[in-house]
Design goal:
24 helices; five-stranded mixed sheet; single chain; 581 residues; 3 domains; elongated; mainly alpha
Length: 581
């Protein structure tokens, strides 16, 4: 009876609670706000996707050559099991020890290969660029940064280089997104999410391990800097307050190991990373291999001209940091301090990396804008000292003057216009989609299957592979793979195509006017018979493919002037094929 009465009272209490008009109203308001936010986010995503798809469809070209390989490999992956052999890059270690470094990325791209090229690639690129920007927008909201839409627009126009790279159908579209998510989850110390994040990240790109290492090292550095209330343990670890900061690092580390083990070729995956990022830089130190432009350093003038708004964001950030420092009433919470320091360290690291290798602009831009937005928000919300209030009041009065307003508007419009103009210029400078297609398809239809093609330029591999997987090629992806495989073979290939001499000495050491030096080159190695025999025996090839680069013009004339050794089979405006007799 007693139990029954208690139950009745409890039920009646809950019933009256549920019928409370104020609680019901607040609950409904919360649901309505949540639905409005979802609709608003959906509308923003649709607008961004429409914008980026429109950009993709506005130009007939496919920016960069790498997407040709990724699209072609994804299509091949759908019908063929790729093991540890990649014979298309024949004279490299990838021939027998291959690992798909973009394993998960290629599976993400695979459904889009069902759509006719290049439309499938363009839709894929627009979709994943939009997803990246939406993740950035959501992080702005999660970090409670004021004016999130404004910062999203600033990111879009912050750098023509960044905007250009968002148009590339490459793993960077996914790695940027994952780097942003990882940064946020590290800030929030979401250890479970970090485990799955790192596990997935490793399977997307060969640069993933490096990005993970940068994010985790920056997090560890912040933990060390902000250990104002720490106490050392007997184990040597450090407690931050009552919780050990090492847990997110361990979780991410375990996820990384799990991702490597989940890879179809884990040992080859690690071996390629070892060669590409450790062995190769050491061996090729001071050696010009004609590597990709994105792996070259970025000059300050180029950075200022291509990323003016990004530079201004960084400048504004340092001003805000200075004002926060001198503001005597500044009372940042520990969480705000940690977040600010983490974003600042990450931005500085990627700024340095961008000047060393300009490809890292794609990570720098969102992190720098995120840092600027966060510093602006905490400065705006923090109480100001009397001196600072006076300074801000005087600045507002100055900015409210009509001439100043006009100048600011004109400056803003020009700053918004310049990166877009530069972006379109860069897009128009790209090669047409069908570049090399005619000569490549001729090789496919007129040469024995699996025969090796002696191609002049390494960066043509991506298009050659896309249009013709019937043949094999000398080198692919990066010339360093051929250099690591056989240095003599590398210089032989370079010297034949660039200087028309079958000599294995470093290219820069050869003076064709004086072949009496001690580098081993002789006049006999310039004869067509020796060059033809060298290509046949050392490169196992009977067909020479040469494109229209200025550097190969002399070699093409050499081939044309010796028809008894080299028979021209086909020539177009962009390339030609010769058969060795």
């Amino acid at each position: 009876m007693l139990v029954s009465s208690i139950t009745v009272k409890t039920q009646s209490g809950n019933l009256s609670k549920n019928r409370n008009p104020l609680l019901l109203f607040l609950k409904n308001v919360k649901i309505i706000n949540m639905r409005i936010n979802i609709i608003k986010t959906g509308i923003i995503f649709i607008i961004i996707f429409a914008l980026f798809l429109g950009l993709q469809l506005s130009f007939s070209t496919v920016p960069d050559a790498d997407p040709f390989y990724h699209y072609g490999f994804s299509k091949l992956l759908a019908s063929t099991r790729i093991s540890t052999s990649f014979p298309w890059a024949h004279f490299t270690s990838l021939n027998q020890n291959f690992s798909d470094q973009g394993f998960l990325f290629h599976y993400l791209m695979m459904p889009f290969t069902l759509i006719k090229f290049p439309w499938g690639l363009k839709i894929f690129t627009a979709l994943f660029s939009s997803l990246m920007l939406m993740v950035f927008y959501q992080l702005l909201k999660k970090l409670q940064i004021k004016l999130p839409l404004v910062w999203l627009i600033i990111l879009l126009v912050s750098s023509s280089s960044f905007l250009f790279r968002l148009q590339l159908g490459r793993p960077l579209l996914v790695t940027i997104t994952l780097s942003l998510l990882g940064s946020y989850w590290l800030i929030k110390e979401k250890s479970v999410l970090l485990f799955f994040w790192s596990l997935i990240f490793v399977l997307v790109s060969d640069v993933s391990l490096f990005i993970i290492a940068v994010l985790l090292a920056s997090f560890l550095l912040v933990s060390i800097i902000n250990k104002s209330h720490t106490k050392p343990l007997a184990s040597g670890l450090v407690w931050d307050g009552e919780r050990l900061k090492i847990i997110p690092l361990l979780s991410s580390g375990l996820g990384t190991i799990g991702g490597i083990l989940a890879h179809p070729q884990p040992l080859n995956y690690l071996n390629i990373l070892w060669q590409n990022y450790l062995v190769c830089p050491l061996i090729t130190l001071g050696v010009d291999l004609n590597s990709a432009i994105e792996l070259q350093s970025l000059g300050l003038n180029d950075f200022l001209s291509n990323s003016t708004i990004l530079f201004l964001c960084l400048l504004f950030t340092f001003i805000l940091l200075f004002l926060l420092k001198i503001n005597r009433n500044n009372l940042l919470t520990k969480k705000q301090q940690n977040t600010k320091n983490y974003l600042l360290i990450l931005t500085m690291v990627f700024l340095i990396l961008t000047f060393l290798y300009n490809r890292f602009i794609e990570y720098l831009a969102p992190l720098a804008v995120l840092l600027t937005g966060y510093c602006f928000t905490i400065f705006y919300n923090s109480p100001k000292s009397p001196e600072l209030q006076i300074l801000i009041s005087n600045l507002k009065k100055y900015l409210n003057k009509v001439p100043v307003k006009i100048l600011l508007v004109l400056t803003a419009v020009s700053l918004l216009f310049l990166p877009v103009k530069k972006f379109y210029t860069d897009i128009k400078d790209n090669d047409p989609v069908d570049r090399y297609q005619t000569t490549d398809e001729w090789l496919k239809n007129n040469t024995p299957k699996r025969s090796i093609i002696f191609h002049a330029s390494w960066d043509s591999f991506h298009r050659l592979f896309f249009y013709n997987q019937h043949n094999y090629y000398i080198v692919g992806f990066n010339p360093s793979f051929l250099y690591l495989y056989d240095q003599n073979l590398y210089w032989l290939w370079r010297n034949i195509t660039e200087k028309s001499i079958a000599c294995a000495a470093p290219t820069d050491s050869i003076d064709l006017k004086d072949l009496t030096s001690l580098n081993g080159c002789t006049a006999e190695q310039q004869t067509p018979g020796i060059i033809a025999q060298t290509i046949k025996t050392r490169f196992q090839s009977e067909y020479i493919w040469i494109n229209d680069y200025e550097i190969y013009r002399d070699f093409k004339k050499f081939l044309e002037n010796n028809p008894e050794f080299f028979e021209k089979k086909i020539e177009t405006s962009d390339s030609a094929v010769f058969k060795i007799n």
